[in-house]
Amino acid sequence: MGKVIAVVNQKGGVGKTTTAINLSASLAVSGKKVLLIDLDPQGNATDGLGFSTTHLPVSVYDLFTGRKEILELVFKSTTPWLHLVPANINLVGAEVELVGAYGREFVLKTGLGKAAERYDYIIMDCPPSLGLLTLNALTAAHSVLIPMQCEYYAMRGLQHLLKTIEQVRQSLNPALQIEGILLTMFDGRNNLNRQVFDEVQGHFNDKVLESTIPRNIILAEAPSHGRPVLDYDVGSKGAQAYFALAKEVMTHAA
Amino acid sequence: MGKVIAVVNQKGGVGKTTTAINLSASLAVSGKKVLLIDLDPQGNATDGLGFSTTHLPVSVYDLFTGRKEILELVFKSTTPWLHLVPANINLVGAEVELVGAYGREFVLKTGLGKAAERYDYIIMDCPPSLGLLTLNALTAAHSVLIPMQCEYYAMRGLQHLLKTIEQVRQSLNPALQIEGILLTMFDGRNNLNRQVFDEVQGHFNDKVLESTIPRNIILAEAPSHGRPVLDYDVGSKGAQAYFALAKEVMTHAA
Ligand SMILES: Nc1ncnc2c1ncn2[C@@H]1O[C@H](COP(=O)(O)OP(=O)(O)OP(=O)(O)O)[C@@H](O)[C@H]1O
Ligand SMILES: Nc1ncnc2c1ncn2[C@@H]1O[C@H](COP(=O)(O)OP(=O)(O)OP(=O)(O)O)[C@@H](O)[C@H]1O
Ligand SMILES: [Mg+2]
Ligand SMILES: [Mg+2]
Question: Fewest CB atoms within 10 A around its CB: which of A4, A211, B76, B192?
Answer without folding.
Answer: B76
